[in-house]
Amino acid sequence: MKVRRFLVVALTLASALAAADEQACQGRNDLPRVLEHVCYNGQPDPVSCPYHDDAFGIFENNRAPYHYLLVPKQKVCGIENEALWQSGTHDWFAEAWRLRHMFADAKPVSGGVPLARVGIAINSIPGRSQGQLHVHISCVETGVARQLAAHASQFNDRWQPLDLTTTDGVQHYLARRLAGPQIDADLFASLAKAHPELAADKGNITAFAASVADGDATRPLVLIGHYSDHNQGHAEDLLDGCGNVQAEPRPQ
């Protein structure tokens, strides 16, 4: 009887913790099921799921012609996740950048999708619908790419203000050009040190990264926005789904 009572209490506690966890990740929780179906249900289609391992998968999001998502297998909240902002932890944003070539190579397209055209984004809580952490991978919107190229030479490894003209008006960001070709796994930890006021309001942060060329060097430029009157908290809008890239017909 004591064992049974213990099990009932344990299950009740587990359910309560699960419910609390669900509430902690603000937004729907559909992505883990989609990830499981597309990447882990038998042999995945290399176009629909170009990459998966024990920790996460990258799969096609059918909302746009060329739009993929990196989603962890385990339940992980989005930008507000405390671990994302701590040094030495798994940085999914950096992983998406490292593996963005999977997206560029995933579909047979006329002329291919140049890697330099690919950007990544993660939205704030107000700018997303899904609670599960997910990083968007797609082409940088053409007008945004032009603006970034025009301003590339003025940025260095210190955070500086940048105003971008978008379809939603002028959006304010902080921009930092990284020293190497990859995004540092401690990106958000370093941001927290430089701007503790942003780390104190993690849920309203949105992030974006794209390649910019300055002379012979091509390095990532990272943008950080804060949901406010000057930013929609939806850096995904800086991507365009590669709308002007035409796919070749897939074999029947």
From TrEMBL:
Residues 1-20 form the signal peptide. It is found in: Cell membrane. Transmembrane segments: none annotated. Its EC number is 3.6.1.26. It catalyses: a CDP-1,2-diacyl-sn-glycerol + H2O = a 1,2-diacyl-sn-glycero-3-phosphate + CMP + 2 H(+). Pathway: Phospholipid metabolism; CDP-diacylglycerol degradation; phosphatidate from CDP-diacylglycerol: step 1/1; Lipid metabolism. It holds the Pfam family CDH. Keywords: Cell membrane, Hydrolase, Lipid biosynthesis, Lipid metabolism, Membrane, Phospholipid biosynthesis, Phospholipid metabolism, Signal, Transmembrane, Transmembrane helix. It comes from the Bacteria. It is a single-pass membrane protein. It is an enzyme of class 3 (hydrolase). InterPro entries: CDP-diacylglyc_Pase, HIT-like_sf. Belongs to the Cdh family. This is CDP-diacylglycerol pyrophosphatase.
